[in-house]
Amino acid sequence: MKKRLSLILTVALMFALQSIVFSNGLSLNSIGTKALGMGGAFVGLANDATALYWNPAGLATQGSSIYVFSTDVIPLGTYKYDMAGIDAKQKTNNYISPNAFINYRMNDWAFSFGIYVPAGLGAEWEGKDVINLTAVDFNGDGVPDKVFGPYEWMSKIAVINFSPAVAYNVNDQLAVGVALNVYYGMFDLKRPHDTPLDVTGDRIPDILPQYTETSDGIGLGATIGLKYKVNEMLSLGATYRTSTKVKMSGTGELEGLPMEMKSDFDRDVTWPMWFAGGIAVHPTECMTLTFDAQYSNWKALDKLTAKYSDWNSESTFTLDWDNAVQIRAGLEYAASKELAFRLGYYYDPAPAPDETVNFLFPSSTNHTATGGLSYKINNIQIDASLEYLFGAERDITYSGDNMPGLHQMDIFAFSIGLGYSL
């Protein structure tokens, strides 16, 4: 019998979402409540304990402190595909990440440790809203004969970094720092299987299983930073973060079959190299301006292969991402010794080309506005910041490895921080 998957099924399933992805839509672009309020333009300033992430050299140019904060990231996505009659909104989930840093300054040395979440987000869609994605044309006449589902469509990613660091003031102008990055990554995925299966023996596929996977893994890397104080008005910073291979292991399962089908799998994922340069300018005693350019080597995420031990098979997902540069700017104004206000902006280009875009791993070009404030009470500082990512619409044409249609995602995030000077 002639069998052909309809275009509606093909565009949803051929991209084989068996991968862990860290795109600009899934990464937390601003670590630290203060940095978030200044648009993440923090490499040249790096003057609180989150310098461990942005520029570890900055740890040696500040006092001892403890800093904790939590950020809540809320994606607001839509997907429209007129050919399939789909007009869906992403579930409004909260992706909350707690973080903690401690920095101890001893003469010209600083020793620091941080536990923080550099990436943590995901996407989830109501199965009934996208059920037409799993319609099948069995006889090849161009009209779907059967609609499978609804199914669960979900991705959830979290990366935790356990990071010790050391920094040293070489002289009154130059400081250097290095941090060890111990990444622990976690990933959950739910989607329909690639192809309907025939389990009754009549040659007509009658089941499209639900695919579910859970995996985690560990990788090691390093961050190196330099900070140079030109004068009281101007400081410069540069940071290099190595690429890191995270070895993921987990279990994949096909649900809805008469028999249990599970398999362990392994997948290596490369966290891309990151390089950034920044400047901090103090035009007045009360004002600070910051500017950063931050480069990510996303081409390291070209192909991802999962090797299933029990199924004796492999699955390769092609990303073909492009390298990207973020441009960031921030402002801080100290209204008094106790109160400070912050504003920021950054431009974040999408690394994913049209040929590999899908709605479980969103990737859009973002223009982002941020703001925040802080209030000091003796040795205690309370910070609050928010940001809104205005994601550009992407009108995607079918290529075989993507999901055609109109993709759009905004992201709202807010952060609360508490610092204590030792």
Structural class: mainly beta
* CATH class identity: Mainly Beta
Q: So, CATH architecture?
A: Beta Barrel
Tell me the helix content.
under 10%
Q: What is the CATH topology classification name?
A: Porin
What is the radius of gyration computed over CA atoms, rounded to a whole number of angstroms?
24 Å
CATH superfamily: Outer membrane protein transport protein (OMPP1/FadL/TodX)
Report the principal-axis shape. Answer: elongated
Task: Tell me about the largest β-sheet.
Answer: 14 strands, antiparallel, barrel
Strand order of the largest sheet: 1-3-4-7-8-9-10-13-14-17-18-19-20-22
Unreliable spans are 1-26
Q: In what range is the share of β-strand residues?
A: over 45%
Number of strands: 22
Termini separation: 76 Å
| Structure annotation, total helices | 3
What is the chain-wise order of helices and strands?
A: HHHEEEEEEEEEEEEEEEEEEEEEE
The total tally of domains equals 1
**Mean of all residue-level pLDDT scores:** 88
